[in-house]
Amino acid sequence: MGDWYSQSPITSPQSPVPNHQSPVTSPQSPVPTVINKFKQRERANMIETNVSRRHHDSFFQVIQSYYQLTKPRIIPLLLITTAGSMWIAAKGQVNPWLLLVTLLGGTLAAASAQTINCIYDRDIDYDMERTRHRPMPSGRVQPRDALIFAIALAVGSFTLLAVFANLLAALLAFSGIVFYVLVYTHWLKRHSTQNIVIGGAAGAIPALVGWAAVTDTLSWAAWLIFAIVFLWTPPHFWALALMIRDDYAKVGIPMLPVVAGDKATVRQIWFYTVITVTSTVLLFYPLHASGIVYVVIALTLGGVFVHKSWRLLQNPEDKTVARELFLYSISYMMLLCLGMVVDSLPITHHLVSTILIQLHLLG
Ligand code: HEM
Ligand SMILES: CC(C)=CCC/C(C)=C/CC/C(C)=C/COP(=O)(O)OP(=O)(O)O
């Protein structure tokens, strides 16, 4: 997966496989304007029979193809949300072994979910410039092999979490795979403009996994971190969808900008940004799960998020502004979770109380 969105100005992404011959022998399909699932399934069958298998030159290339199937660039941020949750749950003192096991289990679960998504979406992935270089549409990995790989990853994740963390964490991670595959990929992605709103719950599950791994239960704070990631997903994704609307339209995916247009999308982005930032404060008050350092970080980061979202609201058609918001959404979530970690550390508590005592003495 290349960071094609980092290039400016944005028109449509460049073909990602300039050195590769087209893997599918048939020409591009005409532009569909409505969702036609039968046509898409037909296309999937066509790909099944027409993809010319491309063999790897070396074992390293095989590894590389399977690695790419897992959409690896997204996984670190999922793990950062898991870690943020773990640190708060453990009040700043996370068992390093549990951390390692949970992050590894989470990685395997997310990789499994993404691999199944790649199998399911191979028809539309072939038709979109951004995704046609992926191992499956380019014929480097066969669906059957990918499925075996995905099952092995899921079994590995479940076993690791159940044995070395706890059953709740294992079940949550597994439910993340099921939700992402069935609810998002199969049910919503091709049928509803709310696909990523409801489907976004899958991406928020790693936060629950982290909390469960530490406490073997789920508290209000755990559900609030889940809600923060859940509410953050629409601004994160729709900002990107504004940039690649034409690609989604081409394959008939009803992403909000395709169906409702840019103006309606930026209004929704604005709404979700404001409630995301508001919800981050609830961790400080009334839940008291995080302290003053966290809330200062959350409000500072949130202020920038709201500002960027406001700019997009004023300039719905400006793809540069949309790209800025998308890129910032990633830094926002990363730094917010880092803020959760830093705030929870005993040394931070010590420093804050020392400063408060000094201020009190001065006053
Ligand atoms: C249903 C929910 C979501 C959808 C539909 C979505 C979709 C996407 C898409 C299409 C990309 C661009 C990938 C590419 O370069 O081709 C992307 C990038 C990214 N997403 Fe999301 N996303 C979702 C939720 C999340 C969540 C929950 C996280 C982590 C907490 C996340 C983290 C990232 C990161 C880190 C990138 C940048 C990857 C890179 O550097 O290329 N996403 N997302
Ligand atoms: C605990 C657990 C296993 C959670 C799973 C979480 C998970 C895999 C979240 C990924 C969200 C995401 C990046 C979706 C991409 O959408 P897309 O597939 O529509 O993107 P595309 O257009 O690039 O294919």
Automatic annotation (TrEMBL):
Belongs to the UbiA prenyltransferase family. Protoheme IX farnesyltransferase subfamily. Keywords: Cell membrane, Heme biosynthesis, Membrane, Transferase, Transmembrane, Transmembrane helix. Residues 1-32 are annotated as: Disordered. It comes from the Bacteria. Pathway: Porphyrin-containing compound metabolism; heme O biosynthesis; heme O from protoheme: step 1/1. This is Protoheme IX farnesyltransferase. It is a multi-pass membrane protein. NCBIfam families: cyoE_ctaB (TIGR01473), PRK04375.1-2 (NF003349). Residues 1-20 have a biased composition (Polar residues). It comes from Sphaerospermopsis reniformis. It holds the Pfam family UbiA. One of its GO terms (molecular function) is protoheme IX farnesyltransferase activity. It is an enzyme of class 2 (transferase). It is found in: Cell membrane. PROSITE patterns: UBIA (PS00943). The gene is ctaB. Coiled coil: none annotated.
